[in-house]
Amino acid sequence: MPQLLRETFDSQRLGKPISYSLYLPDLAPGMREPALVLYLLHGAGGDHKTWTGEDPMLRGPLVNAMLNGTLRPSVLVMPTVGYDTWWTDGVAGPAASALTEELMPRVEARLGFAVSRQRRALLGVSMGGSGALNIALAQPQRFCAAALISPTAYDPVPPPDSAARHSPQFLREGRFHEPLWQAANYPARLAAYRAQPQRVAFWIVAGDRDRSGILQAATQLFERLRAFQPDDTALRVINGAHDWTTFDAALPDALGYIDQRCR
Question: Which of 23, 92, 102, 222 is most buried (most C-beta within 10 Å)?
Answer without folding.
Answer: 23
